[in-house]
Amino acid sequence: MPDNQDQQVIDALRKANQTLVENLMSAQERNLKYAQGIFASTIEVLKNNVSSTRTVLEKQQETFQKLSPVQASSSDLAAYSDLIRLPLDSFQQMLDLLETTSKEGLASFQKATESFEQVTQQGLKQWQEAVNQVQHSVQKPSK
Predict the structure, then answer these.
(1) CA angle 63, 69, 71 (to 5 degrees)
(2) How confident is the model over 61-97, as pLDDT tens digits?
(3) How far apart (Å, rounded) are the C-alpha atoms in residues 20 and 124?
(4) What is the C-alpha separation between 1 and 136, in angstroms, rounded?
(5) Which CA distances in Å does 5 have to 27, 38, 135, 143?
(6) Sign of the CA dihedral with 50 first, then 56, 58, and 60 last
(7) pTM of the shown model
(8) Is-contact 32 113, C-beta < 8 A?
(9) Is the pLDDT of residue 10 over 70?
(10) Dihedral of CA 104/108/30/114: which sign?
């Protein structure tokens, strides 16, 4: 049977290891929530910018049509309309690409987090097995 001091060392190692794993898991969860929050906020800001830009451009187009209904031909209006829509379409494509890239990055981050969690759990299991082996070797009576 292990003496009291050996048991205290084993218990201290077990508690320290458990605390370390809990802190790592907590930090991992906070990092994931932080990354998800940044992703969601960025996408929301970009969507609001697209919406605002679209509204401004539409108002400009309406103003142009009101100011010069006689002076501008339909081809002029179509060209002006295209001129207004091109930057907006490019911005929308950029937003779509950013959203796709961000989602892929978040998915990669989540996979890495899951892998880290698995490795941490395996390490904890191996550590606990090692502690148990030490405890059993200490408990064996000397011959």
Answers:
(1) 115
(2) 777 667 655 555 667 667 777 777 777 787 778 878 8
(3) 10
(4) 9
(5) 33, 49, 12, 21
(6) negative
(7) 0.45
(8) yes
(9) yes
(10) positive
